[in-house]
Amino acid sequence: MSHKKQIKITDTTFRDGHQSLFATRMTTEDMLPIAEKMDSIGFYSMEVWGGATFDVATRFLNEDPWERISLLKERMPNTRLQMLLRGQNLVGYRHYADDVVEAFVEKAAETGIDIFRVFDAVNDERNFITTFKSIKKAGKHIQGGLSYALTERRLGGPIYNLAYYIDKARRIEDMGADSFVIKDMAGIISPYDAFDLVSALKQSITIPVHLHTHYTSGMASMALLKAIEAGVDGVDTSVAAFSMRSSQPSIEPLIVTLQDTPYDLGLELESFTEINKYLEGIIPEYIPFADNTRFSTIDIGVLMHQIPGGMISNLVGQLLQARALHRINEVYEEIPRTRKEMGYPPLVTPTSQIIGVQAVMNVLAGRYKMVSREVKDYFYGLYGKPPAAVDEEVRKKVLKGYERGEEPINTRPADILEPELPKAREALRGISDRMEDILIYALYPMTGLDFIKKSIEAQTIADLENRAA
Ligand code: CO
């Protein structure tokens, strides 16, 4: 117990916490009253933006996502604000052209994001090139990540083994990342695998190593502890009220667990009483968005199938719509088959949705009789290079008659995309020329445009009322 190690804590309450538990519905208004208290805790960083928050704010909350960062920044000057960026997909579901990526990162940095956690759904590092360059240019922190995936219950096997992660992590370090994160979005990293992986990473790369996992399978708190013993530099937690279940492990038990050890966090347990009291007070309005289908806080299905909970609820919704819920077991069997044919991509947004939708169509309509547009794009190479080779027969079938061509590309996907900002500017001519709005439109042309029009209307009405008053 001689050498003390300061573990960096990233709090996820304002992003992954409510994204995981309450379908991303927490409003800025509900964050502000507790923001200063959160800022006083002494977290290394707080993840407050990105992931699904941008889409949900414009689509469901009628809230300007850019304003959220400005308002939080004002109240939290002492804590690094962090966002989750889906590489070239930004906060959307497809690859955007480089001009959109550059402008988005520049605007996010200018508005207040300090740390950009970047990942790619197929772990193709070419999809980091533009984001890394843009983050560096803005003078901000690049946290490069790998989506943690498995093909069996434990680390190993032909694809997702130690060598795979070490090789990819080295590439990310070589590309200029300031830190590295294992991004276990499904909560499937088991404690001893976390120990082995972190130990190997600490021997292979020099930048700090962070671990992001979810409590979903019930292993996360144990995984954090083993990762800390193996020398991890930072871990993600959430405040108790927004933790556990499919969210992050909670910070409070970790504080006591590590007290008087070389990893003592030095955080005041008492400070969390007020925060939890406040959060418990707002939870009732979010309960309708919580998963209340079971009492258990642990999803043993994830332990068995390594399929993220969010993906399962999407499948159920899709099957219900087709009045075919009774075929769910066939879909469970189909998913690994479809995933194998697609080169074993990690099950993370957007690949989890793409595989899920296709697996359902394969069951209902016959294998690859109906193929989604995204699956065609995927086999063409528009999402990047999958971790393993795709099935040649399936690829031929899927790309038959595909408008971009029947032969897949080998380049970085964004290399074949035309600049997209000019078109977005044009579409918003006479409506708005704010870069914030142009980016919202470029990301989501349909729902984004609705949102921009609505917020301009609301602003006009407010202005008129002010004038009248
Ligand atoms: Co997460």
Which secondary structure elements does this structure contain, and how are they paired or packed?
Blueprint: E1 8-11, H1 13-21, H2 28-40, E2 45-50, H3 53-61, H4 65-75, E3 80-85, H5 98-111, E4 115-118, H6 129-137, E5 141-147, H7 162-174, E6 179-183, H8 191-204, E7 209-212, H9 220-229, E8 234-237, H10 251-258, H11 271-286, H12 300-305, H13 309-321, H14 328-341, H15 351-365, H16 373-380, H17 392-399, H18 421-427, H19 435-443, H20 445-468
Parallel strand pairs: 1-2, 1-8, 2-3, 3-4, 4-5, 5-6, 6-7, 7-8
Helix pairs in contact: 2-4, 2-11, 5-6, 5-19, 7-8, 8-9, 13-15, 14-15, 18-19, 19-20
The structure holds cobalt (II) ion.
Cobalt (II) ion binds at residues 16, 185, 212, 214.
CATH superfamily assignment of the largest domain? Aldolase class I
Helix and strand run: EHHEHHEHEHEHEHEHEHHHHHHHHHHH
The coarse overall form would be: globular
Structural class category: alpha/beta
Q: Mean pLDDT, rounded to whole units?
A: 95
Overall domain count: 3
**What molecules are bound to this protein?**
cobalt (II) ion
User: Roughly how many Å apart are the termini?
Assistant: 66 Å
Q: What would you say this structure looks like, in words?
A:
By secondary structure, the chain is of the alpha/beta class. The chain has three domains: 8-289, TIM Barrel (Alpha-Beta Barrel), CATH 3.20.20.70; 309-415, Orthogonal Bundle (Cyclin A, domain 1), CATH 1.10.472.90; 421-468, no CATH class. It has helices spanning 13-21, 28-40, 53-61, 65-75, 98-111, 129-137, 162-174, 191-204, 220-229, 251-258, 271-286, 300-305, 309-321, 328-341, 351-365, 373-380, 392-399, 421-427, 435-443, 445-468, and strands at 8-11, 45-50, 80-85, 115-118, 141-147, 179-183, 209-212, 234-237. Helix 9 links the parallel strand 7 (209-212) and strand 8 (234-237). Helix 2 (28-40) runs parallel beside helix 4 (65-75). The radius of gyration is 22 Å and the shape is globular. Cobalt (II) ion binds at residues 16, 185, 212, 214.
